[in-house]
């Protein structure tokens, strides 16, 4: 058992009885980390940077990752430093094979059964969220999708982006919960009074792409961790 599992117990149904708004990150949250859909996007982004700056893939990848770390998304760095068209970038980055995602009917039923509104809140595009959720067979269960365009290209974990989302949908954060796979994206939700749930890879020894994305022992802002979203949600209803 990992330390995370030891310190974060199974969900207590009463702990979620007040929740009326359910907010889900998309990538590596609504589908498991091991599906690795993001690896395809990652390759496309490297290709984009390589073509844009006429660099080898290796050089391009270093810049891609630097922008990701410094600006929250590779896209934001490319907009600031190279003035690229974000729509063009998003289209090319998300030109991937969604066929690797299988319909997840159990997850769909679990989401459908939750009382209240359900949102997808992603640093990707609406199209990517729709393609992903449709492939999973869960798209119809969501009330709305808030994407990087709605966020005016300022990605999570920027506080202003959470504020935009909450204001747009009139979310009472004291009656809301956020599900995320990146610990840093749960800092603001916790500060706003939301319940926070961290999605962990099923394989505890999974190598994260970037070590700095990993959770740390200082993650007191995380109420629960789980590697089984469907199982977690199923405990909260019925
Ligand atoms: Mg994610």
TrEMBL record:
Organism: Mycoplana azooxidifex
GO molecular function: hydrolase activity
Domain of life: Bacteria
Record keywords: Hydrolase
Protein name as it appears in the record: Putative hydrolase of the HAD superfamily
Pfam family, one: Hydrolase
């Amino acid at each position: 058992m990992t330390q995370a599992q030891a310190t974060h117990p199974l969900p207590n149904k009463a702990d979620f009885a007040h929740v009326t708004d359910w907010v889900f990150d998309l990538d590596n949250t609504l589908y498991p980390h091991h599906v690795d859909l993001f690896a395809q996007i990652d390759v496309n982004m490297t290709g984009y940077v390589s073509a844009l700056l006429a660099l080898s893939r290796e050089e391009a990848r270093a810049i891609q990752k630097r922008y990701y770390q410094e600006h929250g998304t590779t896209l934001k760095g490319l907009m600031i430093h190279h003035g690229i068209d974000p729509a063009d970038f998003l289209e090319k980055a998300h030109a991937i094979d969604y066929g690797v995602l299988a319909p997840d009917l159990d997850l769909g039923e679990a989401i459908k059964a939750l009382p209240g509104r359900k949102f997808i809140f992603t640093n990707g595009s609406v199209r990517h969220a729709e393609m992903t959720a449709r492939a999973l067979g869960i798209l119809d269960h969501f009330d709305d999708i808030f994407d990087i365009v709605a966020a005016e290209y300022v990605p999570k974990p920027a506080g202003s982006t959470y504020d935009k989302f909450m204001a747009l949908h009139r979310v009472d954060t004291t009656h809301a919960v956020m599900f995320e796979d990146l610990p840093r994206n749960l800092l603001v939700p916790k500060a706003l009074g939301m319940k926070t749930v961290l999605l962990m890879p099923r394989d505890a020894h999974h190598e994260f792409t970037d070590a700095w994305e990993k959770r740390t022992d200082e993650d007191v802002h995380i109420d629960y961790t789980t590697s089984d979203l469907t199982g977690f949600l199923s405990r909260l209803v019925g």
